[in-house]
Amino acid sequence: xxxxxxxxxxxxAANKNARLVGPAVGATSEGAxxxxxxxxxxxxxxVDAISVHYYVFHHSMRLDEVKxxxxxxxxxxxxxxxxxxxxxxxxxxxxxTYIQRHYDRSSGILGADPAVEVIFNYELNDEHYPALPGKxxxxxxxxxxxxxxxxxxxxxxxxKLLAH
Length: 164
Fold this sequence. Notes:
The structure is a single chain. By secondary structure, the protein is an alpha/beta fold. It has a single domain (about 10-164), classed as TIM Barrel (Alpha-Beta Barrel), CATH 3.20.20. The chain is about 30% helix and about 15% strand. It has 5 helices and 4 strands. A 4-stranded parallel beta sheet has the order 1-2-3-4, with helices on one face.
């Protein structure tokens, strides 16, 4: 959780505004069980928020299980989520719909959840363009160097959500 020799307390002393977030578990039964074991060992004394990865593509959507374990004792940060335009049905249009339905703070599946404090889209930019299917790529909202950093359909929706 921390580099050897650096305790969470000393990191906070160095920057009182630092937020310690971890352990980046998947929203799966296995991730929830691992999180539970870490909490039993004192994790909540060390972090300011619980980091969770939430993906439809990877069948990692058991946020209710994570929330049950955390029980409101710490906010949840979704530190990875998104929609791959290469490996999920619907490409860019489905990615745009995912952003709209999941991230919005007033009505989104994740965004409107009071337990979720922060949401990070997995990737801003695809390194490869076009992203190759089967490579777990295509998560970005822009196209990589080969694509001239063009914007995907979801980019503007994501940008609007950031403004709120």
